[in-house]
Amino acid sequence: MNAADPAGIAAGAPGSAARPLLQIHGLSMRFGGLLAVNDVAFDVRADEVFAIIGPNGAGKTTVFNCVGGFYRPSSGRVLLDGQSITGLPSHKVARHGLVRTFQNVRLFKQLTVLENLLVAQHTQVESRLLPGLLKLKSYQDSETQARRRAAQWLDFMGLRQFANREAGNLAYGHQRRLEIARCMITQPRLLMLDEPAAGLNPQEKHDLQRMIDRLRREFGVAVLLIEHDMNLVMGISDRILVMEHGKPITTGAPAEVRSDPRVVKAYLGEA
Amino acid sequence: MANNIGSALLAALITAIVVAPVFGLQLVRQGARTLMAPHWDLVALASATVFVFHLVRPWLARAFGSIRLPTLPAAPTGGDRRVIFLLIALAVVWPFFGGRSQVDIATLVLIYVMLGLGLNIVVGFAGLLDLGFVGFYAVGAYTYALLYHWAGWGFWEALPLAGATSALFGFVLGFPVLRLRGDYLAIVTLGFGEIIRLLLTNLTWLTGGPDGISGIPKPSVFGIEMARRPSTEGGTTLHQLLGLPFDNQHMVVYLYLMALMLALFTLFVSNRLVRMPIGRAWEALREDEIACRSLGLNPTRIKLSAFTLGAMFAGFGGAFFAARQGLVNPESFTFIESALILAIVVLGGMGSQLGVILAAILLTVLPELAREFAEYRMLMFGLVMVLMMMWRPQGLLPMKRPHVELAP
User: Fold this and answer.
1) From the candidates B272, B273, B294, which should be mutated to test the interface with A, based on the most A CB atoms within 10 A?
2) Can you give the pTM of this predicted structure?
3) Interface test with chain B among A61, A71, A90, by most B beta carbons within 10 Å
């Protein structure tokens, strides 16, 4: 499962073929007296789906927040493509190609579905004042392209008929998909999904699994995943990190993790 | 029924307690002494009214419960081009036939339209509650006044600089405070507005203190003065050039047309801004700042741009205000002015430009029409706001999202 696919690495990771896309070293996060994340280390390769699992309160989302720049970690280093992004503000981290979704969907609720996708392209479009005010050609072209990219993603997610609907009025499953589309339209290198299957029905979970698979294959994006649904995690992940009480228990392929007694203990308690 | 009478009695009692210190006990001067004269009849009247109202309220609710309050349509986004041109043409032509005082009020309306549209960028689009907007208005007005007073600048040279100075103030204020949110931001901006006013009052050597600066010239028409007599030896005035008799009405109409031009410019720019990436970013930021950051948008820069651009329009409005009044003093820039502009934005419907224009007209013209009731102006103002919030909390003409047809 983890056997390096030379073609995949060559396509996904420029520079050193051996270097993972994301490296986390000794990451700790302390809130007052609470050590929410304690010395976590892992890495994500450019072509893999990497999952973090663990009981509630294990510190999974805190890891996400540290990696994404929403928290400044108390100690440890975060490297993206060998370059340190530790402690950078979140919008700068995002510009390095590392974007995320949220446990509770965070759409721009009063904006239309299409506008949500246009806002996400803010760093790619012509956003200076004068070209826009004067409707210069460069501005109009950039807007047309932005709309075209948005339309492509709406098609990909099957949301085209909702393009002009307010995002807050979409069905929950559609909101989840829109949030992923909004991430993908920024052309990320690493997509971080925080419990993407929460609140979805079995059919939608199945669709989600296929979608994540397609995103990886067709767009060459690595996926870092937090999820409680074990079917989804086991079915989609290349490697899994198990956390408990802020500490990593083990990392490995799904089959290894599933049979690890420490993991069973963390989830089911002492037998 | 007994229950009903009980609650009506309670309401009447509360009314009596609330009203007694206000109406029941009035201070009367008698020579050197101040006496307290009770007016219990007024209190009794108020209590009785409340009592009767509460008694018949269930019956009233049954009788009128089925009546729906009228609903207004949402503001159209595009609108018919011809209708817009017709409206603009009408706005250009009517002052030539209107009376002097009407045109004057219309000019005032247009100043508030300009200010409302400027504040709409900050509050309506970007969702940043700014209670000190009048500060930027003051900066614009004093920029022109001071440039005239100390350097003899004319209106047209000073106008861009007034906008730029206000924008600069917006930028400089915005930089430290925009990490604050909601209530905190509101308080800081409120303080800022007051600081500006106090500075203008106390920097007497520069601003003339409470007396302000007077004799500010009206704008010229492409460098040609509009006055009874030329102010310089050998100069010509517009009416001499055109061979018309001098008429004060000309100036009034000219000021109106200029205000119209500035207001249309503000409308055009803010209308385009909200459809541009920056405008989308403002609205996205209003909805969810964390999501914005997760997508690579820099919230500080986006907020600053809203603050700066909003302040710029206030600066333009201020410079025009100074030219129209011919006099600026700190009295014109009190907090109540900020509150009025904010009321225009909220009443119109946050983010809705058509709504802001409508509200600016309503809130400027209605007090003028009801001059006899000037004492009760604030009371009516408050009543209108309360009713609005009950009947239509989203404003007169709430903003509608743009509808975009996607190419297949």
Assistant:
1) B294
2) 0.84
3) A90
